[in-house]
Amino acid sequence: MGYYFSKTLQVGFDEAVRRTTEALKQGGFGIITDIDVKRTFKDKLGVDFRNYRILGACNPRLAHEALQLEDKVGTMLPCNVVVQEIAHGRTEIAAIDPVASMQAIDNPDLKASAERVQTLLRKVVDGLSGDMSIHRKVDLPQGQAGPA
């Protein structure tokens, strides 16, 4: 099983961030964290890095449901969505697959909740538009869960 799903857009980085943020909002997710990795690496390490943002997406209703089912699931929240520049004018959007990240927890009700989140996140990513799109999924080694 892969741990994320993604799409590559033929748009600049800032436009991809804008489109992704708006699509998440339309899909019922708020952005509760926004990490500018490029700026952080420059400020903290003095190193240059490509444009790379990690958006912490949260659907409050589904997060509440998950926390009612498993109180430590908060260690795996929010759902991270990466927006990264891969070439000038090409930007990749990748979202965590919540089903993959919840494999480590033995709770069938939580799995069902994660499947609902997966459906919503996949719809957001699939709905992003650009001149060209490429879907990709990376497989995890057997028995490993993906990052939160």
How much is the average pLDDT? 89
Helix content: 25-40%
Strand proportion = 25-35%
Shape: globular
Radius of gyration: 15 Å
Distance between the termini: 15 Å
The major β-sheet equals: 6 strands, antiparallel
* Tally of alpha and pi helices: 5
Strand tally: 6
Q: Write down the secondary-structure element order.
A: EHEHEHEEHHE
Low-pLDDT ranges: 132-148
How is this structure best described in words?
- The protein has 148 residues and is α+β, with helices and mostly antiparallel strands.
- Helix content is 39%, strand content 26%.
- The protein contains five helices and six strands.
- A six-stranded antiparallel sheet has the order 2-3-4-5-1-6.
- Helix 1 packs across helix 5 (108-127) and helix 3 runs antiparallel to helix 5 (108-127).
- The longest helix is centred in the C-terminal third of the chain and has 20 residues, at 108-127.
- The chain is globular.
- It starts with a strand and ends in a 12-residue tail after the last strand.
- 30% of the residues are buried.
- Mean pLDDT is 89; it is low at 132-148.
